[in-house]
Amino acid sequence: MRLAGIEKGGFYPYPNHMAEATASWFIPPPAGTRGRLLDPCAGEGEIASLLGRLLNCETWGCELFPYRAEKAAARMDKCHNAAWESCSLTDESVTLLWLNPPYDDDRHGNEKRLELAFLKSTTPKLVHGGVLAFVIPQRILRLVEIARYLASQYECLTILRFTDGEYERFKQILLLATRRDKYNIPHIEEIEAIQRLAESDLAPLGFAPEPIYPLLPAPLKGAGGRAITFRRLDWAPDDLVEASRWAGVRKTRAWQDLVHPVNSEVAFTPTMPLKKGHLAMLMASGLMGTLNLTDDEGHLMLVKGRVIKVVDKTTHRDDHDPDTLVERFRDRYVTTVATLRAAHGLEIIEDTERLTDFMKAHGDKIAAHTLAAYRPLYDLKPSEEELAILDRLGKQRKPLPGQSAPGLLPTQKHAAIAAARAIQIHRTANIQGEMGSGKSSIGLAVIELLDAYPALILCPPHLVPKWIREAEEVIPSVKARELRRIGKGTDSDINDVRAFLDDFETGKLGRKAIAVVASTAAKMGAGWKPVVHAKTIKLNGKPLVVYTCPQCGQVQTDHQGIPVTEIEYFQKRRSFCSAQVSGWKLDTKGRRVWDQDGNPVWETRPCGAPLFEYSEARRWSIAEYIKDKAHNRFKILIGDECHECAL
């Protein structure tokens, strides 16, 4: 690289006055969506920012030089002060790749052109159907590696030179292309056609007669459904210190609440008003902070509660060996209250009698302060709409003893409203109660309050009929149905989940439908058995039975690399062969990987063959089917006896 190029880090900025003409070749993402632009050599972020505004794209990038990165970070949505090689970005996460890499003519050993290195490392980040904007000197197209890679990965190429007055300086061109849906083995004619463009007279960049490159909306998930992350991997010590100062744990809300409990906001919001036992626990744990109270004489008194752990040690002689002393340690938690008054100084109250006297004297003030700080989501004051909904429920049952008319009890109504409000805010609620308190009725009332149909109820097998009966008794006009299985029947395939959802969507079940599935049926899938082969080998002169893969024949080992000698190891879980075998290199989608010369790559990789086979009974786990095939089709899940389920 020339000295001038080294001085500027190989960065040749794209002229800003060409931004509008460049943007005219693209079709912005559909209304209501945004694209995602990646610039791995962002410079000062000017061109990325301009194109982001013109094409409605969020702008991500990185820049090695700090003074340029600081300006880019102010203009772009996300920009790291780091080299592209030091950043990690999920594959298939951007829709527009703006690539203006360093122009490096140097080659040392096996190093390739930087233009090619950047192209190969950034292309996987572009979604299939995404658009590449490649800014390079025209002569680079002469390189067979560049031409072959473009022909294999991209289609619909448009190549324009810079405008007069700009092109003469570095002979730069703008190459636009769309990433192919799958790898293309390029013919020699395709490669040579791109190479010839290195010597051709190209049309200068101008406004497009009509845009021809549609930009896709930014994806929510990357390749393989992985979450999209864009982060810097290398951090200098000074950078870590600075980042910790401005975004470290000491700046988090949780830390601030601990450091400044008096001035901080509430640590949590209870669903319903706290009881005396809750207040006592808050007082003891110190979560209520430091209280400003007044003593009997009207003087200011600061009060702080806490719990400390005390270790008690006991020593005794062993019953079977009198000469041996046995020491036992037992943890004990002691509640203490510290008070600070001008007249009496600091006073620690630890014994039970004094704590009781203190709470009698100041308990009402402490309770009032705590209740004011921990305001509940539901303060036992239902709205008229909530009451109107709940008053219609349970009318088809017989009145309970003491009831003049059937319906929900007042306590059940309050619990249902509190749970519904918690679900609206936190997406979950937990109802605990004694047997006979009406938890099922409360859960059904929550469904009606949220109008969450269709609903799914998971319960133990013996409670399925009870839930169906109770649902139809509590909620007017509801239809409840059990989901039994998904698999092959006598005459045809059976899919209770699909049948239920189809009947709901077509109106056969009415507007209110509830599906009930037993916890055993939810997890019951197809049966399976191990298919490993037993083989006898000699170890230290003794015969030893080991197990091999039926496909590659390799001996199977556990996670510590020790050969497995018990068949029970394969009966506990469905496992796959992890032995290394020779074969074609495959990508994450199971497709062959090709080298830069267009040849498939041969490598050593895990065998991956299943060490089990399914039984003849075809059956699909209802839980897995709903997760994979009916995602978000049910509006709410109620789990009965959750402590018995692996949720």
TrEMBL record:
Please report a single Pfam family linked to this protein: DUF6094
Q: Which residues form the DUF6094 domain?
A: 10-198
Annotated signal sequence range:
none
Gene3D superfamilies (alphabetical): P-loop containing nucleotide triphosphate hydrolases (3.40.50.300), Vaccinia Virus protein VP39 (3.40.50.150)
Q: Which domain of life is it from?
A: Bacteria
Q: Tell me the InterPro entries matching this sequence.
A: DUF6094, P-loop_NTPase, SAM-dependent_MTases_sf
Protein name as it appears in the record: DUF6094 domain-containing protein
Source species taxonomy: Bacteria, Bacillati, Chloroflexota, Anaerolineae, Anaerolineales
